[in-house]
Amino acid sequence: MTQVKEKPALLRQAFPKNFVWGTATASYQIEGAANLEGRSPSIWDVFAKMPGKVKNGDTGDVACDHYHRYESDFDLMQSLGFNAYRFSMSWSRVLPNGRGQVNQKGVAFYDRIVDALLARGIEPYVTLYHWDLPQVLEETGGWLNRDTADAFVEYTDLMTNALGDRLKNWATLNEPWCSAFLGHGVGIHAPGKTDFAASLQAAHHLLLAHGQAMPIIRQNVPDASAGIVLNPAPVYPASDSSEDLAAAHRADGFQNRWYFDPVFGKGYPEDLWQAYGKHAPKIQDGDLEKIAAPLDYIGINYYSRTVVKAAPIQDTPFPWALLGYEHMQLENVPRTFFDWEVYPQGLTDFLVRLQNEYQPKSILITENGATYQDQLHNSQINDLERTAYFEQHLSASLKAIGQGAKLHGYFAWSFLDNFEWAEGYEKRFGMTYVDFQTQKRIVKHSGRWFQAFLGEKSL
Ligand code: IFM
């Protein structure tokens, strides 16, 4: 008789003892209360209201109403066993004019958030900028204006002074690649610009904002752990041909090296700088030194990989045409509802490469998760695919630790279903289902899986 081998269960104890177990969200995606208590519009409030920009005309006006429900949301988070929570702050809630006059009610909200987490034994990890630039700053040029990097320093100064006595884990930016390229290159995110050179300029000012804010965090919170969150897409060649290998290297430059290299003190990659030519950003003496401010940790958001093949280089302002590659859509591979390939090996590969190439002191996986078409049956969501996604990526993380990656924590994206940017509420990433009509929360199978895993019990 054939023996059916059961896959050994993944155990929490297989991870290092002080591993950080968290879940993540972002301000505009969950808070709601868009017009309450002095908050001014962000670029996402404005973008979401432009016809055709967000599916079904959805906006973050109410979202998960977390602004009013954070106490019960954190009770739920605590009951699932997480010991850390990554959230972001809304700049326009605390500085409605982008700089200058402080909205104390906005600051008080984040003060309450931090206390509510600490009271439950959940360590807060904050991101200062998760894409919701105050609209007033957009009106003076947004990330295309170098002054916005200075305004970010003022905002950092305000929040680190206000909360740094209790809040120790700080990230400057979330995924500057997205703010820059999706927001300024292809225009599918706020502020909706479509100019490749502008996207590179925005990327530079974002990185500058990060570099200038790091010393302020250190000055105001001497025992802070401070870093930045990037979103690598490991790139694989479609074949072993030298053309495809070279194309993959160039694509890796656009996706990954353009951000990792300067942040880790290597400056912008020379091959890309040459290839971008007239589209390359304007930078000033000393910028690269600032951007290279030492990090306590690097945050990695991992979802999927990219596969590319060589294509003719064309003098058109689209990065892949300019760099001579095409994206491949592989057949017969598992995919999420976003159509992103499920490829856990990419996480292992990237973590190991990151350690070897950039030698970070510490790595956190600050996001990892998947969207599937959840079905509500008898008030339950049996999202087994999402559970499998989490399990596979945790195993991939463990593999990377075994190969030397200094990985110290994992934050699942996301705690709640939420406003998924241009996709509105259609794409759900939560381990907790949110009924956006009633605001009822229902923990999905994946959330219950985490609860059992973290509590070292069987489900
Ligand atoms: O929802 C986003 C998040 O805001 C940034 N990283 C990717 C997630 C899923 O698309």
Structural description of this entry:
With 459 residues, the chain is an alpha/beta fold. The chain has a single domain, classed as Glycosidases (TIM Barrel, Alpha-Beta Barrel). 40% of the residues lie in helices and 15% in strands. The strands form four sheets. An eight-stranded parallel beta barrel has the order 1-2-3-4-5-7-10-13, surrounded by four helices. A three-stranded mixed sheet has the order 6-8-9. A hairpin with a 2-residue loop joins strand 11 and strand 12. It is globular and about 55 Å long. The chain starts with 19 loop residues before the first strand and ends in a 5-residue tail after the last helix.
Tell how many strands the DSSP assignment holds.
15
Q: Structural class of the secondary structure composition? A: alpha/beta
Shape verdict: globular
Helical segment count:
16
- CATH class, please? Alpha Beta
The CATH architecture can be given as Alpha-Beta Barrel
Summarize the structure.
The protein contains 16 helices and 15 strands. With 459 residues, the chain is of the alpha/beta class.
Comma- or semicolon-separated keywords:
alpha/beta; binds 5-hydroxymethyl-3,4-dihydroxypiperidine; TIM Barrel; eight-stranded parallel β-barrel; three-stranded mixed sheet; 459 residues
Write the topology of this structure.
Blueprint: E1 20-24, H1 27-30, H2 43-48, H3 66-80, E2 84-88, H4 91-94, H5 104-119, E3 123-129, H6 135-138, H7 147-163, E4 169-174, H8 176-184, H9 196-220, E5 225-230, E6 235-237, H10 242-263, H11 270-276, H12 287-291, E7 297-301, E8 306-310, H13 319-323, E9 325-327, H14 344-358, E10 363-367, E11 376-377, E12 380-381, H15 384-402, E13 407-413, E14 432-434, E15 441-443, H16 445-454
Parallel strand pairs: 1-2, 1-13, 2-3, 3-4, 4-5, 5-7, 6-8, 7-10, 10-13
Antiparallel strand pairs: 8-9, 11-12, 14-15
Helix pairs in contact: 3-5, 7-9, 8-9, 14-15, 15-16
Bound molecules: 5-hydroxymethyl-3,4-dihydroxypiperidine.
